[in-house]
Amino acid sequence: MRKICILLLLLSFSWFYSQGKSSLSSRIYGKNGQPMSNVTVMLMKADRDEVLKTTITDQNGNFEFEDFVSEPVKLVIEQPGYEKFISETLTSSEGKITFPEIRLNLGTKEIEGVTITSKKPFVTQKIDRIVVNPDALISNAGTTALEVLEKTPSVSVDMNGNISMKSKSGVQVFIDDKPSYLSASDLADYLRSIPSSSIETIEVIANPPAKYDAAGNAGIINIRLKKNAAKGFNGGINLAYGQGKHMRTNNSANFNYRIKKWNFFSNFSLNKNETYQDLTITREYFTPNGDRSSTFTQNSYITPSSRTHSAKIGADFYATPKTTLGIVLSGFINPSDRNIANNAVIQNADYETVSLVEAQNPMKIRFKNDAINLNMNHKFTDKQELSVNFDHINYHSRVSQNLYNAILNPDRSVIEQTQMDSELPSDIRIKAIKADYSGVEALGGNLGFGAKSSFVKTNNVADFRDVMNGIKIPNYQFSNDFTYKENIHAVYTNYSKDFSKFSVQAGLRMEYSDIKGYQKGNPMVRDSAFSKKYTSLFPTFYVQYRADSLQNHVFGLSLGRRIDRPNYKDLNPFTYPMDKFTFYGGNPFLEPTFSYNAEFNYTWNKKYIFGLNYSYIDNLISETNEQRNNIYYSRPGNFAKQISYGVSFNGTVSVTKWWTLQCYTALSSNRFSSQVYTESLNDSKWNWVIMPTNQFAISKKWTAELSGQYQSAALSGQFLISPVGSVRAGISTKILKDKGTLKLNVSDIFYTNQIKGQIRNIQNANASWYSTFDSRVISLSFSYRFSKGENLKVRESGGSETEQERVKI
User: Fold this and answer.
1) pLDDT tens, 707-760?
2) In contact, 266 and 311? CB cutoff 8 Å
3) Can you name the CATH fold of 232-791?
């Protein structure tokens, strides 16, 4: 009853406040005829440059000034990339005034063959996300999407390609607003296949709105690929070659053709990447009394080589001025080889060599994907629109591997030799349908709502066979056949309203999960099954306060609850060997992770962003390690609790006219509290990250860059990661009448981006590792773009928003 009274009081106050007040409203469009959101509009005195009020446009380009003053005023809009807009003198009267629609003109002007355009900033802060423009950094030239993420503020990528945000795991990665549907290892391989030149922007959303799926306790990273929707025939090509110890080449092309009611678009890429990893792991074993009993030192030399061919083609049909129908076909083929040579030394308590271990594990991987998206968008009014998306996605993986293992005496005489072959086929089928309705006017703001259903089925087969005298015998210890089904149904609503100094957004999402898993039995392992059903609510809330009329002091707060479901394959209870002493496996008892997140940010002078963040994470899913009888077992598990909090700063300083410094730095604390098998984990550690980028304007055509990053020691569950850093440099020039660009880039100049650390909280054992990579690479890239006509708004498509991220092949 108390809550109802408070709500009625607020509504009454809103109604009372609105009586007798005048207002001024309008809508802003860009030159391409599309509404412009997040545009700052100033209300100024007509006789002098004194700002009376400011506001920003909503997602539909609308803005409104309440309590419009009676003295003569004018509207002023200064938007980067557009000409300054100044209205005629306006005088208020009681009531609602609707100003004619405002159409801004692009700020690009041709003077004697010289084109002047505005430069995109590297980082832009919005009410609910950070937007990063990779092209702003020369060092991104000739690299991949995964390497671009390594340089993205608040994002970290470890040696295995696992992505975290603000020291938290559980990040969902989207491509063009559609989930990648991949596990950490497969996602890393896929991101390595996307050239950086194909990326338009990267959106880092720590606390996504209710419109997005609630999956990903650390938030969402949305990678938007470049599109061209100009009239006529347009496109671009990007070529890049890099050389470290091994070579890599990443090439892409995109084309667009717009004619009458049709718009056709496409994107193709051809990539080849070769690299290496030299990993040394040392394990020490102890007796229950704490005396050292033995050591195991293993060196793994890993040489992955991949070739990726990907394509996306699509078409939009503008059936009526208000209705658009679309289709997108996409897919990739990623054949790769991954050879692992393991050599280990086993020593006793006195460090005397007892035996040697030699293992070879050549793997051939054939990974492919095909997908179709059907979409429709209909505008009922200028504000209200309905969008519907249907996705049908298939992933197919075929892994063939041979494990040769030999245990030798110190004199290299053979103690034991084994061979095990395996075929690991995996298929994932995903169907998702989503509908969103937005722009409903309610209580002076905008209301949106929608629904989504996804249906996922995976089939994983592990067919292991021991090879003896050329004869293959089924190995039922490791062989497995696992089927997993997951249906998730969701509904959401979202509300936003802009005031003269405040912007408020709130949402609520409800998700119902129905999960079933079934493992077929064999002569050694009984069949088993599990099922789970649960319903969860996920509220979100944002508020932004602009303290002054020039928006030099802007405060923002966001709150939200999120979930991180296990990867599909992580629930598979099978175990497979890396060698005789290292086993990996799944865990059918994994529970979903729930997190509660809060962020506060302050933007000063539109250039400097200060942030505070706090997260409480329950049942964190992370890698766990234990040892039994001197054999290491690694599998995903639930940590009881993680608490993270910290401060951050991101800003851009013009040191001189030709030197710009952009810097991101953060200080954060991670505390983990859990029982890990027989051991108790209760530890915390502060971590410091700094990422400075210096950009130099040498001339009108030449620019240069010197940048780097450093991370102090960091704690992640059982892993303590040692400090690591790197320095990179690049130079760029415009060619071919400024339509082409050449960039030369050198990464990890001093070869310092090599990772090491410790694995702790293991019963009667500890472990450490040191890993080197092919991180110092010289890259040369060339890009060329041609464009004609006016750009059209490229519609977002895709109804599946998290399922791909959790596929594990």
Assistant:
1) 999 999 999 999 999 999 999 999 989 898 878 889 899 999 999 999 999 999
2) yes
3) Maltoporin; Chain A (2.40.170)
